[in-house]
Amino acid sequence: MRLLLAATCAVGLLASATSAQAVGCLSGAVAGGVAGHYAHHHAVLGAIAGCAAGHHLHKTQQRRRLEEERAHQDQTAPGQPAQ
Question: Cys-Cys with 29: which of 1, 11, 14, 41 at CB 3.0–4.6 Å?
């Protein structure tokens, strides 16, 4: 339990230091740390994998949202009202 707490705090400190690049990392690290703790006490490995997965998921969602916004802007011409 101490290892899980230490890993979560360490990831939290790293995420706050580079918050622009660590979006999604903290929540993924917490979930991965908990899952790793229950999977034969590999909380640190779970936190690292969760951080990477959370960051990747956030980037994918952000890219998809930007594409949808661009598609919506392309559909509405400047002189026409939005549907």
Answer: 11
